[in-house]
Every structure is written in structure tokens, then in C-alpha cells.
Amino acid sequence: MRLDNLETNQTKIFEGLRPGDLENLVLPEITVDDFEPKSGSPENIVVVSFYAKDLEPANDLASFIERGAHDILDTEVSPAPDEDGNYLIFVEMNRDDSLMESFMKILQDIKKIVNIDNWNVEFYQNGSIEVPVK
Fold it and tell me: Which CATH class is domain 24-132?
């Protein structure tokens, strides 16, 4: 490997996301409990799913959430797009008293990179609500 390629690749690896980097690449849609958790049983684990328009922004968002100070168990990106061409970012969290606080903290933190103020959160078999993020 040439040295100039190594420097370019390292710059990309170590460069963090800046405000607005994922604007218009992440959809303002979230589903809750629409998928089965890998880390445990649905009685104990919640799967929150975000949607991105392409694989690279999906991976970036998953990494950002995983590296943050969030009370999560795991993140994973779907290996292929859904029927609408979007990639899903699965975030597994404990189903406990801190769930809503952790969920809102994630939304507040990613707001800086996605520029989304209002999320449409759809709960499996329970309808949806709009969640504003301050």
C-alpha cells in the first residue's frame, strides 16, 4: 500500500461527523418494536429502527450512536435496503425505566448531524406520534 493512500484512508477513519453531515440522508421516521431483538427477548429488549437513504450514512449514524454516551446494547445496519431502498439502523436498548430518557438523549445527540427537529415515531401495532426534539 502506498503511503499517500494510507494517509487518505486514516483521515477518513479518524474524521468525525460534523453538524449537518447526514442532513437529507436520514429520514425523520423511527419504528419501535417492529423487529425482534438479537440480544435477548422482546420482553426485555426494545429495537428502535432509524432509516437512511444509503448504506454509508446508515453506517455513519450507527457508529455515531454506538460511540455516544447512550445506554444501548447494540447497533446494526441492515445488510440490504428495504422495499423503499432505505437502509435500517437497528438500535437495541433495555426495556426499563430509563428507556425514554435514553431514547430522547439519542435523538438530541443525532439532531446535530441530521438536522431533524420532529420525528414520526411508529410503535408496532400501537400507532404513531410526532416527537419534537429541542
Answer: alpha beta
